[in-house]
Amino acid sequence: MQSQNTLLEQDQRHVWHPYSAIQADTPIYPVKSAQGAHITLMDGRVLIDGMSSWWSAIHGYNHPVLNQAIAAQLHDMAHIMFGGLTHQPAVDLALQLVKITPEPLQTVFFADSGSVAVEVAMKMAIQYWHAKQQPNKQKLLTIRNGYHGDTFGAMSVSDPDNGMHSLFSNTLTKQLFAEAPNCTFNQPCTVEDIAPLENQLKANHTQIAAVILEPIVQGAGGMRFYSPEYLKQVRALCSKYNVLLILDEIATGFGRTGKLFACEHANIAPDILCVGKALTGGYMTLAATLATQEIADAIRDGEPGLFMHGPTFMANPLACATALASLKLLLDSPWQATVSNIERMLTTELQVCQQYSHVKDVRVLGAIGVIELHQPVDLKTLQPKFVEAGVWVRPFNKLIYLMPPFIISTEALNMLIGAVCKVVAELEP
Ligand code: PMP
């Protein structure tokens, strides 16, 4: 193996990282391996994972059951094109997704990443209205502080400020935005919370194909939690104004908020649902867009009678087989109790951070803990502090947040939270 310094030098010179630049001055840490809730760096340091590789590695790393699922599938085939061909892992996974998601969702389109699943959802909504002889319904309506991915369609419905809309203003589709609700998870939804979205629907519903939202938790746009009552009212308004509801559960899906899907907090069903991230337990890149029978039938029966999307690696068998194994692991486990234990520990132990003048808010929902500061963090100085404290935590903007793998031990979670609280305390001016 190359020396760590050579690897870092080559990486800095030639390799792009997410939201970074070539030869950026933020630190990068070479990883040797990862096991359970622990990441081993090339220099031998072992970090407790607080990120689940961005919501995805819910079962931890190097899980024998997931490893075995990949090995078994590899024996048959790693990949096969999905145009005109099908296979058992794709069909089994589709059936399983239909079974565990809200009842009206009956059809599954496999995509390669969350952003693509969002593009597919938007195209489905537009094609649906085209098929229903309402081709004017092409706009998407969403709320501020949302995040749906980095491709152009997904960017167009992400928060205009966080999503840097001005940078891409000549190419980005102009969508409709309403203020996000201010009611937090445990609060009732007031008229002021819902009015902005309702007004947009009232004024523009003849042009709106769908409302797209992250249910209950707005992730990368601010880690905000909002009231299930708001989501309930959005569902009712979409039905009233003849607009489809797309829910993006790419981050919230598969237990993270304490329900299998966050829309269950509001007991509602979308017309179109996007899942990804934890779908394969963080092993492979796979996402899916589910739609109702009504949408699928309308697209088939309309013009041109086909849904116009088809990625090369659609329904990759290795990814589907891993996703099936990951779902089985999750559903066979006492995941509700596990997530509520993590929630309890995060709630109790992160509270100390509330006392600091530089901390604006501490909030917890399911296996998500958020410390919001008054000022944006300096990643360059903060990231090494977390690594020195033995934890992998990746803050952004004003947010230091934790979403550990569900399999994390009580002891490791205690150490993780303790280390984060210590670093936050040291940030006090
Ligand atoms: N939607 C949401 C809610 C997300 O959190 C993300 C990823 N952070 C995406 C979409 C995009 O997924 P991907 O990065 O897999 O394209």
Radius of gyration: 22 Å
Number of self-contained structural domains: 2
What's the CATH class of the largest domain, please? Alpha Beta
Helix and strand sequence: HEEEHHHEHEHEHEEEHEEEHHHEEHEEH
Question: What ligand molecules are bound, each kind once?
Answer: 4'-deoxy-4'-aminopyridoxal-5'-phosphate
Low-confidence stretches: none
The description of the largest β-sheet is: 7 strands, mixed
Mean pLDDT across the residues is 97
**What overall form do the CA principal axes indicate?**
globular
Helix segment tally = 13
CATH superfamily membership of the largest domain? Type I PLP-dependent aspartate aminotransferase-like (Major domain)
Class of secondary structure makeup? alpha/beta
Strand order of the largest sheet: 4-12-11-10-7-5-6
- Reported CATH architecture of the largest domain: 3-Layer(aba) Sandwich
What fold name stands as the CATH topology of the largest domain? Aspartate Aminotransferase, domain 2
What does it look like?
The chain is an alpha/beta fold and 429 residues long. The protein has two domains: 4-62 and 334-426, Aspartate Aminotransferase, domain 1 (Alpha-Beta Complex); 76-332, Aspartate Aminotransferase, domain 2 (3-Layer(aba) Sandwich), CATH 3.40.640. 37% of the residues lie in helices and 17% in strands. It has 13 helices and 16 strands. A seven-stranded mixed beta sheet has the order 4-12-11-10-7-5-6, with helices on both faces. Helix 4 runs parallel beside helix 10. The relative contact order is 0.16.
